[in-house]
Structure formats: C-alpha cells, structure tokens
Amino acid sequence: MYMTQGLHRAITLQPDTIATVYRDRRRSYARLGDRVARLAGGLRALGLQASDRICMLSLNSDRYVEYYLATYWAGCAVNPANIRWSAAEIAYSLDDCDTRVLIVDDQFLPMVPALREKSKSLATLIYAGEGETPAGMLSFEALVEHSAPVADALRRGHDLAGVFYTGGTTGFPKGVMLSHANLYSNAQAVVAEGAVRRGMVGLHAAPMFHLADCTFMNGLFVVGATHVMIPAFTPAGVLQAIEREHITACRA
C-alpha cells in the first residue's frame, strides 16, 4: 500500500479525467501527475531525505492536493498545520517533529515573521499564493515549472507517510505518526463502505489539514474521482460549488 497508488492508476487508465478543480483552474490526471513529479523533484533538490517532514499552512486549494501527493512522491512525510493555531503552536509542531520546510499561502503569509522567530527547525519557506513571491521565499509554481520530474520514491507499507497533530483538548498536542498502510487502508475502508464511488465529484469544504478531509481525499483518489476545492466552508460557497460543478459528495 502506498499513497500515490491511486494517482498512478488514474494516470494509466483515465489520464484525461479532470482530477482537480479550483476557481478557474481545471487539471486532468495526466497534468496533475506531471506537476506532482516536478514538485517532488523540486523538493528533493532542496536536500530533503526519506521521511523528512514538510508542512503546509494554507486554506484549501488544488495546491494542497499537490502538496500531499508530491510529498509522498518525494519519499517525505506530510505535517499539515492546523489553521486555527497561533504562530507559537504551529512553531511548536514544526520543532517537535523537526520540520524544516513550510509551504504557506496568502492567508497565512502575515504569520511568517513570527514563525521564523519562534521555530528553531524551520529553514525553507515556499510561497503557494496567487501574487508575487515574497523576498526570502521560494515559489511553489517556480518549483513545479523549473524542476525536472523525478521517479516516485514508492515508499509504502510501514514507511512514515505523515505526522498529524491532535487538537490538544485534554493536554498538549501530540504528533501522531501514520504510515502509508495506515492511511491507504483507511481510504479503502471509505470506498468499501460506499462513501465514495467511481465517477464522483467530491467537494473539499472542510479544512484539508484535518484527517477527516484527508481520508475523504484519499478515498477519492482510490476510485479516480474528481476533487473540487473551495478555500473554506461558507454556506453560499458550498451551494454555488454544488450547482456549478455538479458535486456528488462533500465534506464540510
């Protein structure tokens, strides 16, 4: 079991199927696979090794999907940041599992100075927003555009896939280490229960850092479905997306 398995299958069997939809961006599985392989190449060029952690602090977008897949493809492990946390709490999670790379979007760009100050492990910041790349940061799109695609590391089974932090409701947040087998078997269970099916169009309205939406995403990849993202849940945003994209399944 490995977390890029669904992507590989979709690229082979249905390369022209729309994989991701975000605002006016629509990308096929073939295009998604190319971007993931190139982003993984860019991440490896930063010197990242097997199981090194990569964090993303962002609202929902197609780049969030690419972050998950490219991290797995590069042989690294995800550490998605809780968007409800303060800079101090996020810095703690970065240092706790020695995360050196952070991908950040426009919404959380103002938090960067505090994260630089408070985190001892943070070394590289990647800008995944829609504007000009700030000084001292790398561009997400430039990494995709200018990096050569690399072969999938194909880490699998008990290899580390991600570190997911608990909410800390009864104590300090703890990083939970989940393997490829943990995440993929969970995705297969979602498919077996009929919660996702082939041909679905799934809406990501729940925060994509959370394992609830991550499980939904992984299940959609198992069946080669389409992922539609809105930045965050709003009643109007969900209804508009349902009407515009003919959504058949949603996590809100």
Please explain how this structure is put together.
By secondary structure, this protein is α/β, with parallel strands linked by helices. 39% of the residues lie in helices and 20% in strands. The chain contains 9 helices and 12 strands. The strands form 3 sheets. It has a 5-stranded mixed sheet with strand order 2-1-11-10-12, with helices on both faces. Strand 1 and strand 2 form a beta hairpin. Helix 2 packs across helix 6 and helix 4 packs across helix 5. The protein starts with a helix and ends with a strand. The mean pLDDT is 96.
Through-space gap between termini? 28 Å
Largest sheet: 5 strands, mixed
Beta strand %: 15-25%
User: If you average the pLDDT, what whole number results?
Assistant: 96
Rg, Å, rounded: 17 Å
- Strand neighbour order, sheet with most strands: 2-1-11-10-12
Overall outline? globular
Percent helix range: 25-40%
The secondary structure category is alpha/beta
Order of helices and strands: HEEHEHEHEHEEHEEHEHEHE
Please provide the count of β strands.
12
Count of separate DSSP helical elements = 9
Which ranges are low-confidence, i.e. pLDDT below 50, for 5 or more consecutive residues? none
What does the secondary structure layout of this molecule look like, with pairings?
Elements: H1 5-13, E1 18-22, E2 25-28, H2 29-45, E3 53-57, H3 62-73, E4 77-80, H4 87-96, E5 101-104, H5 112-118, E6 124-127, E7 138-139, H6 140-146, E8 160-165, E9 175-179, H7 180-192, E10 201-204, H8 211-222, E11 226-229, H9 235-245, E12 249-251
Parallel strand pairs: 1-11, 3-4, 3-5, 5-6, 6-7, 10-11, 10-12
Antiparallel strand pairs: 1-2, 8-9
Helix pairs in contact: 2-3, 2-6, 4-5, 7-8
